[in-house]
Specification:
Elements: H1 4-25, H2 40-49, H3 53-68, H4 72-85, H5 90-102, H6 106-116, H7 119-127, H8 134-147, H9 155-168, E1 175-178, H10 185-194, H11 203-210, E2 215-221, E3 231-238, H12 246-249, E4 263-271, H13 282-296, E5 302-305, E6 307-308, H14 312-321, H15 330-339, H16 350-365, H17 377-384, E7 388-393, H18 400-406, E8 410-414, H19 420-430, H20 437-441
Helix pairs in contact: 1-3, 2-3, 2-7, 5-6, 7-9, 15-16
């Protein structure tokens, strides 16, 4: 088995010996010329010019160590310098393309590719020489994502990070591990911290989710990030498809015996590393977990989610504010407004159901972003994986977050193993939301005539 600790110690030894090599090679003398006093951008340039492994390790470690001690504004300044000073040269690209265009052989093609690649990509690769710095680069991208709203030009550097991370974190490097009550405490603490869908309130709450025989948790790990989950999924083994989250998370419930379990319910999927946003793990995770569950529990024949609808209430609010909408009447607005006085109260919801159910169906089947995409990010994830929108569940999550985000609505996506590939193609190629007939019927006749809309 790969001994990460031994490799890190070896790299640290190389780095210690390499510091003197760097200083001697540059002919530096005295404290004023040492690498620990050089500006970080200059160090990045020095890192690019380093030829030896030892010198590369020590420079990378110096950059990483100093970067971690910077204030936020200083970190953003370094990222801007990396973005702007280590970009590809347009003149060099034009020359390389001209040479390739006149003589399109393999050598000139390789030269063109090398010229087009921004030098900052090589800086990032070499920063990864620092012992244990894969995690440091993930955190550096977190800083980059935080800086993007104020510095949109950093999108170019973000593309470089995404390009490299998509290779470094591809499925071949990921390790699936089951998380149970015997897992190391530091991993269990991170599961509590990273849970993003249904907050884990205590250690007892965590134990109820991972220890009973009818509850499972699986996570992907990467060999370079020791004991740092990348993404995890919580699974409930049940005898039927659930319509609400409370029975799954209930403190007191009957534990289902193995042979009684026919349905695996994925009720929470949480990404753990903000710096890996945009790097897809979830589709691999679900498919791998399905394979493992089918092997371990032959009685399972249904794989379904119980998923949140995080943008639904925001979209409803926008529809209500749109006085020319053909989907919300004044009477509907009155019903929805009254709900704000009854938060988390499941009683007397019949009128609200008549308004919300067709709106929920429309949110998935008809509403789109300006670019034509399905609005809901969770829907895009599961539909893109080949799932079918199976059932709409009103008043399924009366937590403060569930009510605030979606009027407590949740939905089931069905992973029908025979149809996954076809469903994926229909969504990826045509943007079609594959849905059950029950979801389609929920559209009902709520569409108003233009004359019924408020002027």
């Amino acid at each position: 088995m790969l001994n990460i600790g031994f490799l890190n110690e070896l790299l640290n030894t190389i780095a210690h010996q390499g510091r003197s090599l760097v200083d001697r090679a540059r002919g530096l003398a005295g404290d004023a010329g040492r690498i620990d006093t050089m500006p970080l951008a200059d160090l990045a340039a020095l890192l690019l010019s380093a030829r030896g492994e030892a010198s590369g390790v020590v420079i990378a470690r110096e950059i990483v160590s100093r970067y971690q001690r910077l204030e936020t504004a200083q970190r953003h300044a370094f990222l801007l310098a990396l973005n702007n000073s280590f970009a590809a040269s347009p003149d060099d690209i034009r020359v390389a393309f001209s040479i390739y265009d006149s003589e399109p052989n393999a050598r000139n093609h390789a030269r063109l590719l090398a010229t087009v690649e921004p030098p900052r990509q090589e800086v990032i690769r070499r920063l990864n020489l620092a012992p244990g710095n894969t995690g440091g680069l993930v955190r550096m991208r977190e800083d980059l994502l935080d800086a993007l709203p104020d510095h949109p030009e950093l999108a170019a550097l973000d593309n470089d990070f995404r390009h490299l991370f998509s290779s470094w974190f591809n499925r071949g490097f990921l390790v699936l591990r089951r998380i149970d009550w015997s897992s190391p405490a530091q991993i269990l603490e991170k599961i509590i911290r990273y849970e993003a869908v249904h907050a884990i309130e205590s250690w007892d709450d965590l134990r109820r989710r991972i220890e009973p025989a009818d509850r499972r948790c699986y996570a992907f790990f990467h060999p370079a990030l020791i004991d740092e989950p990348l993404i995890f999924v919580e699974v409930a083994l049940m005898a039927e498809r659930p319509a609400a989250i409370e029975p799954i998370l209930a403190e007191k419930r009957d534990i289902l015996a193995g042979p009684q379990a026919t349905t695996a319910v994925f009720y929470s999927i949480s990404n753990c590393q903000k710096g890996l946003a945009g790097i897809s793990f979830g589709n691999f995770l679900i498919k791998q977990v399905v394979e493992d569950l089918r092997r371990d529990i032959p009685t399972l024949d249904t794989f379904v989610t119980l998923s949140p609808v995080p943008g639904f209430r925001r979209w409803v609010d926008a529809e209500c504010a749109n006085r020319t909408t053909t989907f919300v009447s004044d009477a509907d607005r009155a019903v929805l407004a009254a709900l704000d006085g009854e938060e988390n109260d499941p009683e007397d919801m019949e009128d609200a159901s008549r308004v919300l159910l067709p709106l929920l169906a429309r949110y998935f089947l008809e509403a789109r972003t300006p670019s034509g995409r399905v609005i809901d990010p969770v829907a895009r994830f599961h539909l893109g994986n080949g799932a079918r929108l199976e059932r709409l569940n009103l008043f399924a999550d009366f937590s403060a977050k569930g009510w605030r985000d979606s009027y407590a609505a949740m939905v089931n996506y069905l992973y029908d193993l025979k149809s996954i590939e076809e469903n994926h193609e229909r969504f990826a190629t045509h943007g079609e939301v594959v849905a059950s007939s029950a979801v389609s019927r929920a559209l009902g006749s709520r569409r108003l005539h233009k004359s019924d809309a408020t002027p």
